[in-house]
Amino acid sequence: MSRVVVFGLGGAIAMTSSPSGGVVPALSAEDLVAAFPGWLRRASRSRSRSRTFGACPGASLSFEDVYALAEAVRQRFTDGADGVVITQGTDTIEETAFLLGLLHACSEPVVVTGAMRNPTLAGADDPANLLAAVQTAAGATARDLGALVVFADEIHAAARVRKTTPPAARATPGPLRGEEDHRAR
Ligand code: ASP
């Protein structure tokens, strides 16, 4: 079994209802991993340890936070981790992943993920994104690829990924197979 360490930084993936209304990024990395007992371990063939590094919106993360995170990640690899997953707010997911990629000098993968719909919403994407990220971090195929962003069942190089508005990013460019193209010609 691979050993994967999940670091939690906050963001929508860590949001839960606040007594004063709305949602706040209050779930720890331990909460995220513990929400799927057994399932995460079996589906990814890995043992996950978790460490909460912060609980803030992505836009509140500083360079110092990411430098400190990179050092903590390096330490986990020195201690024998096979992969690391970072969960954080998507507003700065590309910035964190890019900087982590520059600072990452090991073969083991660092995988950053998050969620567009927080766990209180119907269709929340945190379980699928967390599982895909842990599977990627635990697998041998992601070695020597540096930092990655795993989201919506896609694996992106940290240096190339960009957050876009989902409907635009996922717009169907032409007619579906078997359908007429009714657009103006
Ligand atoms: N505003 C949130 C954040 O970046 C949204 C998200 O996580 O997608 O922390």
Automatic annotation (TrEMBL):
Bilayer-crossing residues are: none
What organism does the record attribute this protein to?
A: Actinokineospora iranica
Q: Where is the L-asparaginase N-terminal domain?
A: 3-166
User: Where is this chain compositionally biased, Low complexity type?
Assistant: 164-173
Q: What is this protein called?
A: L-asparaginase
Provide the residue span(s) of the region labelled Disordered: 162-185
Q: Which Pfam families match?
A: Asparaginase
Gene3D superfamilies (alphabetical): L-asparaginase, N-terminal domain
Lineage, opening ranks = Bacteria, Bacillati, Actinomycetota, Actinomycetes, Pseudonocardiales
In the record, what terms sit under GO molecular function? asparaginase activity
